[in-house]
Amino acid sequence: MIAKADFIEGMAKGMAVLESFDTERQRLNATLAAQRAGITRAAARRHLLTLEHLGYLESDGSYFWLAPKVLRFSGSYLASARLPRVMQPTLNRLAAQTQQSFSAVVLEGDEVVIVARSGVYGSPARLLAYGLHLGARLPAHATSTGRVLLAALAPAELSAWLKDRTLARLTPQTTVQPTALRRLLRQVREDDFCIAAEEHELGVLALAVPLRNMQGRTVAALNVVASPQAHPPETLKQTLLPLLQEAAREVRALL
User: Fold this and answer.
1) For 144-201, how does the pLDDT look when each residue is reduced to its tens digit (9 = 90+)?
2) What are phi and psi of 109, to 5 degrees?
3) 101-108/64-66 β-pairing
4) Domains by residue range for the chain, with CATH
5) Which among 17, 80, 152, 172 could bridge 218 via Cys, Cβ 3.0 to 4.6 Å?
6) 94: which residues sit within 8 A by CB, 6+ positions away?
7) Positive or negative CA dihedral for 36, 33, 38, 6?
């Protein structure tokens, strides 16, 4: 916890305004930004104007949207963070070997974030699920990677994560009951992998395994997405699960 005297409230509000922009709301005015950031409209307007002045937002006078300058943050992270640099060669090798899409993912709040992504190999028609780009944020409860990472939490941490949380239904297959999710997470811990079938997006099957460091702590998840028609769950377990598990063992000493 940070000491109250060390907390800069203005900076926190400015970051809240910046984080208000996402794929659902790409353009915001002061009223919308205030609602999403939980601050007054007058404060939101000042933050929006300041961020525009600094080059992080663009505007038509009424609405604001993210400017390319915000990529400085992600670019600096990807250039300096250990996990993306360690995982990229492995992800590229797996993709070239199988013609499938692979990602390394971390847990951040109620979402998972893709921090490394395989290159494009093979047929352009191979499955690319919606939103699975570098930096994408996906709901943890409905994804294979999210469940692997949630399953690694201590019981008290998981209870705190689930407390008063509404699990959004994204497809008819999405698990939205906390008790049902707990059962699934117990199975994930026992299996040491997770398959999520069309819970985040229809027509998409995902398989994930934990990425652990030498101390045994789960620091990320490695996953592959495929079509249920081409790779039903049993086929995924037989053909791709061993590749993911071997890759996780290979990188363990580097994490």
Assistant:
1) 999 999 999 999 999 999 998 999 999 999 999 999 999 999 999 999 999 999 999 9
2) 70, -130
3) unpaired
4) 4-71 (1.10.10.10), 81-254 (3.30.450.40)
5) 152
6) 100, 102, 118, 224, 243, 244, 247
7) positive
